[in-house]
Amino acid sequence: MGADGGEGGAAWRLGVDIGGTFTDLVVERAGTDAGTGSFAGRRYTAKVLTTPSAPEQGVIDGIHAVLRAAGLGPRQIESITHGTTLATNALIERRGARTALITTEGFRDVLEIGTETRFDHYDLDIDKPEPLIPRELRFGVVERTSARGDVLEPLDVAAVDRLAAELGRLGIESVAVGFLHSFVRPDHEQRVRERLAARLPNVTVSLSSEVSPEMREYERFSTTVMNAYLQPRVAGYLRSLRQRLKAVGLDCPVLLMLSNGGLTDLETAMRFPVRLVESGPAGGVILASHIAKECSLAKVMSFDMGGTTAKICLFDGAPSTVRDFEVARAYRFKRGSGLPLRIPVVEMVEIGAGGGSLARISGIGLIAVGPDSAGSEPGPACYGRGGAGATVTDANVLLGRIDPTAFAGGKIALDPANAENAVRRDVAEPLAIDVSAAALGIVEMVDENMANAAREHAAERGMEIGGERTMIAFGGSAPLHAARLAVKLGIDRVIVPVDAGVASAVGFLRAPVAYEVLRSRPCRLIGFDAAAIDALLAEMSEDACAFVRAGAPHAELATRRRAFMRYVGQRHEIIVRLPDAPLASIDPAVLRGSFEESYLRQFGRTIPKLEIEVLSWSVIVETAGAEARAATPVRDVPVDGALAVRQLLDPGVGTRIDARIVARSALPIGAVLDGPAIVVENDTSTVVPQGFRLTVNSHAYLVLVRDKGLLA
Hints:
Radius of gyration: 26 Å
Number of strands: 33
Largest sheet: 9 strands, mixed
């Protein structure tokens, strides 16, 4: 393979996922049988430490590594698909731009007033997250429109001009504009942008009528503020990345993963960076959905655990998206304690539980783990990069789950002595227990944290976890913890896909180019103007198509239309799929029937004689996703050999037991292996506890099944 030769000169696609600790890269030949698992010679991966101060540097380092491993040259890369946690981290760490808010006079305190609800009625000292924009940088101007779009008070243009001069003196980098009812009539916001652009050409401007054109001003203002807060930083990073990619010869299209599981072009991502907030985790859910189709799984729990966070998503058939999301929660499991976002996002729960999560003793003398993390700089103590705190990775090294000489494919040599010193100092000595017990306590606590998050997420959605549900585990840390977490949740089957350690990056290559447009146009089903709504949906479809065509100019597109409906008087609405035909040609009784069917499925009953209303409308336009090929039966192949035998402290029995160490690359299709064992590969290791039987299916996925007969 020459520098630009590679295998046959075919086009390849590259997936890049920037996490809080590692940056993962996957290069894969375009048009291969995505999902068969047999990627020998056709998929290559790399995992490098994230470089927080200049994340594009980690991307470039990883690209060099993965292209070198594949024997490819830059010109063979057809496209790059990218997801990142940079937007989320900037919000959590308050590292955004100096931002101002311009709103309707009298409404500058909406960001602090919120919905006037308390997320904990019994805590008199609750701490709500501070608004991203302080009060002195929030400004009101005279203007007012009604909920129907009538101008009640014209925009005071002279006041906007005076305000522009003031913003210049204050050194403002970005401006969020959010007026009352602008989702119905956006022209006042548009005029403000025109005036600011003429006087402050280097300041970015985000309009609520474009970022989140929906009713409920608190959520709309909050989302627009986040977009403005992120835009200079994210857009600057993406421009820098594009320049660095071109400098190394990668002058190909770059697509960004959105929070709803779709892809978009670079320009759209720069314009609406708030839609990237959950882009990395969404890639993992896309892959889990693909695997569910391949393995004919009806009920799935995707479990993605990396170096900084763990993400859990429950779905029956296909992942669902929601419009309500929170970041920077002041209380880990308290809904309402964070900053609200009103964007389409894959529904999941995310907690600060990863390999880098720091362990300590709480004020009441118990082991506490996370949400703070050692990250990639300095990293866990065992990395030998200056980290001193005990982490989950340090505990896993001491428990025998991680080979210090083979971590990250041998690229990062771990120091067990550093791990032991950190765990002894931070946990063992304060509790007067030995180091092994302290390490076991750390992993048990992080597993219980994740189990609690999964239980609460399931309860909020009215879903069962155990029984027929299958866990799909991926991320660098998830296969280490998956089986134990499954036991805690009553799950009997776990699937670990090929290249699980970089699975989100693989998921990016399975995602469609997609975009969702939402508009608020409240109306009741009785006597609603169907022709007007058809015109609105047609306009929304054109807008969504334009975004998708920017990333996929020649692809065949599919459209899905949805309505957000509720009984009159209720606070929240549910999602109802709309028929493809024009609404003017459909009997309103059909829409009522669709709503009641969805309502019955979600709540177990309907409410007779109540009127139904629609608050918002949605149009999703997308390209076709990767085709899933069904798994086929395989012949059992018993596995007798092992690379080595290692002492493993099993939390199920509380003692050290001998575990076989087996290379994943040595397991053939159909391989059968009883625990205890550890299956090792470059980017992760899979722990097979006593009581589990591992098989390798036709896609080369590891399938762990709890077999209680093996415990005897």
